[in-house]
TrEMBL record:
Keywords: Cell inner membrane, Cell membrane, Cell shape, Cell wall biogenesis/degradation, Hydrolase, Membrane, Peptidoglycan synthesis, Protease, Transmembrane, Transmembrane helix. InterPro entries: Beta-lactam/transpept, Beta-lactam/transpept-like, PBP_dimer, PBP_dimer_sf, PCN-bd_Tpept, Penicillin-binding_protein_2. It is found in: Cell membrane; Membrane. GO terms for cellular component: plasma membrane. It holds the Pfam family PBP_dimer. GO terms for biological process: cell wall organization; peptidoglycan biosynthetic process; proteolysis; regulation of cell shape. It comes from Candidatus Falkowbacteria bacterium RBG_13_39_14. Residues 111-286 form the Penicillin-binding protein dimerisation domain. GO terms for molecular function: penicillin binding; peptidoglycan L,D-transpeptidase activity; serine-type D-Ala-D-Ala carboxypeptidase activity. It is a single-pass membrane protein. Residues 328-652 form the Penicillin-binding protein transpeptidase domain. This is Penicillin-binding protein 2.
Length: 660
């Protein structure tokens, strides 16, 4: 039998290699007895198994026994070094490294972002950040021994002038925030903060932190801006659960009302983090890694603070003569919806809230019958009175109920059975068309246009309601302030469900002159006045004008709610009627101004036992309007004698000091 001697491992296929060890070739396998391991020294292979000539040749590689021994020695030496290192770390120096691991730990320290600053349209700072000091406890760093922990907490209670039980209760309530700082005392004066800082160095789990808090431009004399700015307050447990908890901590502050609340996300910024090595007392040894915070955006408002202050002081002066205390004034740009001024009186000082308002101060505010916390400009809902008549006129013209030349005779009112619906002038106004009816606020004309009379067909309540809603009554305007009222637009079904009685023609007459169940907010009245000012667009009113990010200014785009809802010719007829109110009608006091204006008065009755609300809304200049002014004095009396003089002084100030 022919054979082949294999002196080294050849590179063969798996099947060929396996065939060497089985079948007939197993008897040809020879082992060298000088090695305990299997070593192929010589093997005869039956050539009949099909090896080719190439496979018979040496095509592999050889490893000598010397190299194998060297490799084994290397692995043994590496293993012995590893064993020695483990012995050194865990046994010889185990106690030392154990203390290091216990005392020095990697912690996450949060870096709070700078809150954005708020400016008025001229660059005047309205809300700033001021430094403040707070004493805090991190529960995870307190002593583990209960006796030591109690001793430390009692010492902290003494230094912070807090009760021991109170601190324990605070820690218990916030046990879920084991690794976050818990505020023990805020707004420390500098001397106290310095003393506590020195002592806290040797106190485990105790830290003194410099934080920033809001400071507003408001004062006890001028604080109407508070309703606009709102205020910041400590985040509550409920708020913390709702917001992005990755960007807020238990000791953070958040916007509670006003611009501070609406633009919380933009003003807040992004929380930063740093990995720090701390010692056994929880004090930082070194920073391992750091991810800086991102500052909040600054905001420029459309408000002119000097203009705002002027109007606030003007109202307070008028209150002395009128013996009234509640009013609202809105000034906006009809071409983009920017609010130049928004005053609601009485108001409050939002600086009372930045350090946590006292129980006495808060009790005074909420128990004040004048409701100083209530923003009348956006949340107050009142009968709009005759300021609603421009909408009635536009609806009647649009529906073909009247034309520009339609005339109706006013004799002092109309009778429906035993019910009398009066004009404000008991002797009547004679024959009037739509323009003179707006100018002199003739009720009879709008009774006809709204509910009809005898053979004259009116709009009816369903169409009146539909047009009121088109002009955004009964809906939010979307102004960027919280708590906006919707007003109210009644209809037949509502009355049946609410009072279980039918809708009467008298109800329609009342709504036609802005009375009865119809309600509107001052911002809604200013909004639909701007529609007639600019020729047919309802722009969304807004307070924020731009975001400031470093050197970048991002202006907010103007948005409109509705447009092209009334034909231009009909809009112009209403505008002429409002202009005539200044020329010869109920607002002729404005005719002495050095520029043309247009407006509509309103006297809205609410109760037989109270004076009516005094309304006036106007725009100027007439040909190229720049501002809308809406004035409401609650229970002020006649709009023509109370609110028109206020609006005149506002227009004069604007013309001389504000317009560019």
């Amino acid at each position: 039998m022919a054979g082949v001697v294999v002196t080294s491992f050849q590179v063969l296929s798996y099947e060929k290699v396996m065939s060497l060890f089985f079948d007939d070739n197993r008897k040809n396998l020879k082992l060298d007895d000088s090695y305990t391991s299997l070593c192929i020294e010589e093997m005869e292979i039956d050539n009949e198994k099909g090896l080719t000539e190439d496979e018979k040749n040496f095509i592999g590689f050889s490893i000598s026994f010397k190299k194998v021994n060297l490799l084994m020695c290397f692995f043994i030496a590496a293993f012995m070094i590893l064993v020695f290192r483990i012995w050194l770390l865990q046994i010889a120096r185990g106690e030392y490294y154990s203390s290091i691991a216990e005392g020095n730990r990697i912690r996450i320290h949060y870096i709070k972002p700078r809150r954005g600053v708020i400016f008025d349209r001229t660059g005047k700072q309205l809300a700033a950040n001021m430094p403040s000091f707070s004493l805090k406890i991190i529960q995870s760093d307190l002593p583990k021994d209960e006796a030591e922990k109690e001793k430390l907490l009692r010492e902290i209670a003494s230094l912070a002038e807090k009760s021991y039980d109170g601190i324990c209760q605070l820690l218990e309530e916030n046990s879920a925030y084991y690794y976050q700082p818990i505020i023990i005392k805020e707004d420390l004066d500098y001397e106290t903060a310095l003393m506590l800082y020195v002592k806290s160095i040797s106190m485990p789990g105790v830290a003194l932190e410099e934080v920033s808090k809001r400071l507003y431009i408001t004062s006890s004399d001028n604080n109407s801006i508070s309703h606009i700015l709102g205020y910041n307050g400590k985040i509550s447990q409920q708020e913390l659960e709702k917001v992005d908890d990755a960007n807020y901590l238990l000791d953070d502050y958040t916007g509670k009302t006003g611009i501070e609340s609406i633009y919380e996300r933009e003003l807040r910024g992004v929380l930063g983090k740093s990995q720090v090595e701390t010692n056994a007392l929880g004090k930082m040894v070194r920073i391992v890694a750091k991810n800086d915070s991102i500052s909040g955006l600054d905001i420029a408002l459309s408000i002119d603070y000097e203009f705002q202050t002027f109007i606030e002081n003007l109202l307070k002066d008028e209150f002395k003569n009128l013996k009234k205390e509640k009013a609202s004034v809105i000034v906006l740009d009809p071409n983009n919806g920017e609010i130049l001024s928004m005053v609601s009186l009485p108001s409050f000082n939002n600086n009372l809230f930045i350090h946590g308002i006292s129980n006495d101060d808060y009790s005074k505010l909420i128990n004040d019958e004048r409701k100083p916390l209530f923003d009348r400009a956006v949340a107050g809902e009142y009968p709009p009175g005759s300021t609603f008549k421009p909408i009635m006129a536009a609806a009647a013209l649009e529906e073909g109920i009247i034309t520009e030349t339609t005339k109706i005779k006013s004799v002092g009112g109309i009778w429906v059975g035993q019910w009398f619906f009066p004009d404000w002038a008991s002797s009547g106004h004679g024959f009037v068309n739509v323009k003179s009816a707006i100018a002199n606020s003739v009720n009879t004309f709008f009774y006809y246009a709204g509910g009809g009379y005898n053979d004259f067909e009116g709009l009816g309540i369903e169409k009146i309601s539909r047009y009121a809603q088109i002009f955004n009554l009964g809906e939010n305007t979307g102004i960027d302030l919280p708590g906006e009222g919707r007003g109210f637009v009644p209809n037949v079904l509502w009355k049946e469900e609410r009072f279980n009685e039918p809708w009467y023609i008298g109800d329609t007459y009342h709504v036609s002159i802005g009375q009865g169940y119809l309600l509107a907010t001052p911002i809604q009245v200013a909004l639909y006045t701007s529609f007639f000012a600019n020729g047919g667009v309802l722009y969304k009113p807004h307070i924020a004008k731009a975001f400031l990010d470093g050197n970048e200014i991002r202006n907010l785009p103007k948005e409109y709610l509705r447009k092209s809802i009334i034909k231009p010719d009909n809009v112009n007829i209403v505008r002429v009627g409002m202009r005539d109110a200044v020329k010869y009608g109920s607002a002729r006091l404005l005719s002495s101004l050095p520029f043309a204006s247009a407006g509509k008065t309103g006297t809205a009755q609410t109760s037989k036992n109270k004076d009516p609300h005094a309304w006036f809304t106007c725009f100027a200049p007439y040909d190229n309007p720049e501002i809308v002014v809406t004035v409401l004095v609650e229970e002020g009396g006649e709009g023509s004698s109370v609110s028109v003089p206020i609006a005149k002084k506002i227009l004069e100030y604007y013309w001389e000091n504000v317009r560019k």
